């Protein structure tokens, strides 16, 4: 009896320990824990989005296939696009920023810790609300109907006539709620950056990542409200007969496109600029050189932020805009390539002549450089209105977009995780598994998205669930689908690497990369208060000044 009681006490103690730990995570206002929650949630939704696209690729691997119905296909690509943009990309960038930005600034926390927690839970609730549509939304065929309107939700597809039931309402409310969370986090990052920098850290001494996230946060605050307003208008259309987007009642379907893409194209830079930030932190450390042309990089970042607000209608060249508008948006889209090109040359200038270390974070950044150049070139093609008319709504556009988001953002996210994982956990991820992760992802990416360019040039439309066998598209679709298998294997190896490293990974130490920014000056993982004493900086490389006070301008041998 005594043994049984002891076991019961032990089991109860373990259960209580788990409950206490769970309570600590749920109620936390520590920016580092909230950052981990953001990243963990984003990776969870990435897996869900990956499952959705895997089913889509199985359907498209063979001509005239009927693995899934057209309705199921529409729901899958709607949920995949919405998930990867709103539930993976944005929370991932906010998660990394949450953890790293206060440490880089020498601050104790973000300016508004409780608001920070509130922003995270709003995002997570919005994600769950979206997927609750599978259980609670009633569509054409009864309960369990997910949204099938595309992640862009073009009118009139969103009207009650074409989208009865509640699935579209779940989509609207989920994005609206998550959008509020994004705005709150952005306001927090802006306030922290402008008011909580440590002594000596002027604006032009901030790490490049802080500058970029400042611009990103300003963009979020500027472009989420128009999207929110459009969603409210859509709700009024659906429930109160407001007819904002109903052309038959005097509204305009193009009004939705203008409002959506005024958010949607800056959103591409909101997602991509953090990738630039990660590369700007990783490349100098592994090249053993100061970031080349720091003032030009800052100017280019601000330039991209400003110009991105004036390019949205290049998504609408095929809708019949006037010649003058086509010329304006062609010019503005080509112009935004200039500051982006400046960044490419700055990264290459940093690498040139450096003592390069090909660790896993650097490998991901080098792949990003090559792939993003291709993405930029195809973007220039699509920026020219006559060419866009030919390629609009073809798989060429799908290839371009994924070259940006996957070839650019996803690769830099992996680089950032491998780079900052030691700071978060105190342990390093396996370099061997990291290289397997890298090469499988590179191979899978190239097979999947390079072939999509060919499909587009051969005339394959996007958003079709099947296709005839006599168009010459099948072999390219099969190759695209094979590439997805390599990407799944890469993500599986990454997940195993994280699990294994958390249990018995190599102890990293406080500064495993011999880096230069302030987050590496504290312990790994950092204490709840971040720094024993608030640091004071005198240059853009404060940690270098501490390590090498007699060699402030040197390159570490």
* Beta-strand percentage range: under 5%
Radius of gyration: 24 Å
Structure class: mainly alpha
Provide the succession of SSEs. Answer: HHHHEEHHHHHHHHEHHEH
Distance between the termini: 67 Å
Query: What is the number of beta strands?
Result: 4
Number of helices: 15
Overall average residue pLDDT: 92
Main sheet characteristics:
2 strands, antiparallel
Descriptive overview:
This protein has 557 residues and is mainly α. The chain has one domain (2-547): Cytochrome C Oxidase, Chain A (Up-down Bundle). 68% of the residues lie in helices and 1% in strands. The protein is built from 15 helices and 4 strands. The strands form 2 sheets. A two-stranded antiparallel sheet has the order 1-2. Strands 3-4 form a two-stranded antiparallel ribbon. The protein is globular and about 70 Å long. Mean pLDDT is 92; it is low at 139-143.
